[in-house]
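Q: Structure tokens for this one, please.
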Amino acid sequence: MRVVMAGGGTGGHIYPAIAIADKLRRRRPDCEILFIGARRGMEKDIVPSRGYELRCIDVRGFDRKRLHRNAGALLALLRACGEARGILRSFAPDLVVGTGGYASGPVLREAGKAGIPAYIHEQNAFPGMANRLAERYVKKVFVAFEESGRHFKSKEKLVVTGNPVRREFAARGLVDYREKLGVAPREFALLIFGGSQGARVLNESLFSILGELCAEEDLRLFFVSGARHYEEARAAFAARGVPADGRFRVMAYTDEMHAYMCAADLVIGRAGALTVSEITACGRASILIPSPNVTGNHQFFNAKFAADRGAALLMNESELSPARLLDAVLRLKNDKVLLNRMSAASESLGRLDAADVIYEHISAGLREREV
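A: Here is the predicted structure, written as tokens:
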């Protein structure tokens, strides 16, 4: 079986594609997988590091506010369609899976025109434009959140799968991560992170309440600052007399987010689709602060999905203040009934089988084609 995975630009599009590809490779070891991405996307570094071949096309996003500046993007899109057509002809895939981002649109369009079975996976509660436009070319639309289904026209194509998360999250019941990370049974563990790049506004709010958090002797903090904010974070901790490698731990980045998330009682962070999916996969209560600087305000809808079901507190960035953040943390720390209720709601939303569900639908489609 030969499969093309198309998409990228950000980790939110790339990592689900890798999770699906990993599932295909485990279930069908002879499967040949080719990734197609954008030359300017993060995939050029991430995909090869995971052992997959990547070919890039020249495609870029449209400026929705200044439409007169889109002539170059339109020409690039036309070229990208030609490049995608050439790659599909040479690789001759049995199917194509698109996960959103600039590169997925041209590939899905050309696959549909060539009669190659194609599928979409949409990570966010508010779908991206590339996936909405490509709906007409695909057999199935896999969605992570029920809410995103209302933005697609062909309801018969919809399958609610959740977001594929890394295999490590499935081990949360097999490993005592609190013991592994040195969290005492009676300690309240708080994880704060702002995504892979960090979030300055969230960091600054934390710095302002460090003294009050330190006064809570049974509170342990894991803080992932983001690489570009790391030195600033350590300096802020030092200025307030808080060691950055003791009960309060500062990290630029971690490859073991699953361990810290599973060890935490409460998670505070942005509301990217994968972040929300990983938090719920771990069954953790959360305070979600959506980034306002994303296309379609999609992080707000991701956070609202969890908040509406009692799994999270939604705090818009415009409403964020040190006092409000501190009040929310201490309220949840001191109200075990509420915290446990939110954790249970979160766990009820968590999906660990998304990649399996997607694989089964893809396999069924292949069997139908072979008959």
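A few notes: The chain has two domains: 2-164+352-370, 168-349. The first helix runs from residue 11 to 27.
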